[in-house]
Amino acid sequence: MPWPAWYNMPLRPVNPSASGLLLIDKPADFSSHDIIAITRRILRTKKIGHSGTLDPMATGLLILLIGREATKRQPAFLNLSKTYQAVLKLGLETDTWDKYGEVIHTAPVPEISGAQLQAHIQTLSGTVKQQIPPFSAKKIKGEKMYDLARKGVELAPRFNEVTVSWADVCLRAPDEITFTLTGTSGTYVRALGYMLARQLGTVGHLSALRRVAIGPYRVAHAFDGNLLKNCPTDILYKQVQPL
Questions:
Q1: CA-CA distance, 3 to 38, in Å (whole number)?
Q2: Percent of the chain at pLDDT exceeding 70
Q3: Which residue spans within the chain are E strands per DSSP?
Q4: Amino acid 187: pLDDT
Q5: Which helix (H) or strand (E) holds 75?
Q6: pLDDT per residue over 194-230, tens digit each?
Q7: Can you tell me the distance from the alpha carbon of 149 to that of 237, in angstroms, rounded to the nearest whole number?
Q8: DSSP-assigned letter for residue 108
Q9: How far is CA 34 from CA 10, 43, 178, 235, in A?
């Protein structure tokens, strides 16, 4: 699909003094940086930050910080907790730990009882030493891990500590688990899914991921990202919430 005619227009601020939050419900197959680039063109401003990106596979809440005053507060927004709904598919592991990756391992899925599942969830609750996905934006000596992974560079596993809580954990099928997870800054839901599958004696990857909340902000109040490309400037500015 071709870009709209306005996409290549020069950046001329329409309301350069406006500053606030733009809540977007990001569709799948768009990177967060795609959404930011489109929004810059529509609002004709370069001053846009974010409260934490989403992988292309993921959908859901992306908070854009519009204008100088909002972008100054980016560190505070990055540190807000985030809540996700996810589906973990067991038996297949991909190199990215989500469905967009290439399958690198398969394993039989053992019979899992509800009690066993809850016991393993407890070991991955609270403060957790989480393995950082090899395909992530974490930098090693100034280079992003996903760039190194694509070059075939083998890295020793990296870990960070996060605090997480689980809810609505359900064994929806013998090889599929759905759950809601809230985590502090730096949480990778696909890493928790990877770790849970391993603890259950098999392998797995995320087949769906949706961010439903960032701190007090909810995706239910977000602008539909599917409508973003063709949105007129004045209409989109009306979606910007004051700080």
A1: 10
A2: 91
A3: 20-26, 48-50, 59-66, 82-90, 92-94, 103-106, 126-131, 139-140, 143-144, 159-173, 176-183, 204-214, 217-218, 223-224, 241-242
A4: 96
A5: helix 74-78
A6: 999 999 999 999 999 999 999 999 999 999 999 999 9
A7: 39
A8: P
A9: 18, 14, 28, 20
* DSSP β-ladder status, 20-26 and 223-224: parallel
* Active-site residue identified among 55, 95, 175, 224: 55
How many CB atoms neighbour CB 1 within 10 A? 4
pLDDT at 15: 59
Is 55 a known active-site residue? yes
The two tokens of residue 179 are 């759950």
Given a contact cutoff of 8 angstroms between Cβ atoms, the answer to whether 60 and 226 are in contact is no
Calpha distance 160→199 (Å, rounded): 18
Token pair in block for residue 130: 């989480």
Q: Confidence class of residue 145 from pLDDT cuts 50, 70 and 90?
A: confident
pLDDT at 134: 82
Q: Tell me the average pLDDT of the chain.
A: 90
